[in-house]
Amino acid sequence: MTGVEEVSRQRRRYARRHVSARIGLYVAAILAALICAAPFLWSLITAFKQNRDLYNPVNNPFLFNRPPTPDHVTYLFTDTAFGTFVVNTLLVGVLVVLITLAFGLPAAYALARLDRPWSGPMAIGIFLVYLVPPSLLFLALSRMVVAVGLQDSTWSLVLVYPTITIPVSTWLLMGFLKTIPKDIEEQAMVDGYSRVGAFLRAVVPLAFPGIVAVVVFAFTLTASEFIYALAFVAPTGQMPVSTGVPTQLIRGDVFFWQSLQAATVLVAVPIAFVFNWFLDRFVAGFTMGAVKE
């Protein structure tokens, strides 16, 4: 009986440790989620705060110490060109994503599949282009934008942003394509497809997680980029969100904090929703793209 009692005691002890560990894990996860969500919650609450509530230093920033008001959100839509900024951002983002895929996917496939002595150095060179600071390319790109007559136009961003997105997207897709066995496209070519047909019908569906990663990366980068957007686009009707919102809601030393936070929430929520919708494929694209042959 002594041995049985000892075994039972050890089992109960193990069960208590297991429960304690699970509780600790959940508590840590909840705390981490709250810490990560705190800036978003503050922005959401601030968007509906009255001025007397927001600018009182003794008030809790995460509570409505006075009744909430929608006036600042209304101001964002009625007294600024926020809707135009959003449309411009979507236009630029979609076009840049399409251009990035049109150039980056074939380039990545060529570097990953065609055995040439220059493939490795060229891949490294393409990635190094991404590491060049934007400020060093500013003068050259500005001359190029003026030469083609796109200054002060949203189309200048469509021309410039692919110089940032294509190099890193090519590098990412190249690493991902290397994880796809060559036998798949070789079998498709045996069945009668050309190399292009085998690429489109056999390789691209398998590379979908990597393509999703590139789409999310390219769109978020174009939506958040500030330097080129500020330098190349001056008219209010041509500005994207990244420059339009600050220039409209920061006037000298006057900050429209509630409207700024409302714009932050309205832009962040759709992006976060899409990101979480494709989260599994996005993670797979980055992690599998890190594998090399």
The fold-level CATH name of the largest domain is MetI-like fold
Radius of gyration: 26 Å
**What's the CATH superfamily of the largest domain, by name?**
MetI-like
Q: Provide the residue-averaged pLDDT.
A: 82
Briefly note the structural class of the backbone. Answer: mainly alpha
Main location: membrane
Keywords: Cell membrane, Membrane, Transmembrane, Transmembrane helix, Transport
Domain ABC transmembrane type-1: 86-279
GO cellular component, one term: plasma membrane
What's this entry about, in short?
The chain is an all-alpha fold. The protein has two domains: 2-70, no CATH class; 80-289, MetI-like (MetI-like fold). Helices cover 76% and strands 1% of the residues.
Please provide a written account of the structure.
The structure is a single chain. This protein has 293 residues and is an all-alpha fold. The protein folds into 2 domains: 2-70, no CATH class; 80-289, MetI-like (MetI-like fold, Orthogonal Bundle). Helix content is 76%, strand content 1%. The chain has helices at 2-46, 51-54, 71-78, 82-113, 119-130, 134-147, 154-160, 162-177, 182-190, 195-206, 208-224, 227-232, 241-249, 257-277, 279-289, and strands at residues 250-251, 254-255. It has a two-stranded antiparallel sheet with strand order 1-2. A hairpin with a 2-residue loop joins strand 1 and strand 2 (254-255). It is flat. It starts with a helix and ends with a helix. Residues 289-293 have low confidence and may be disordered.
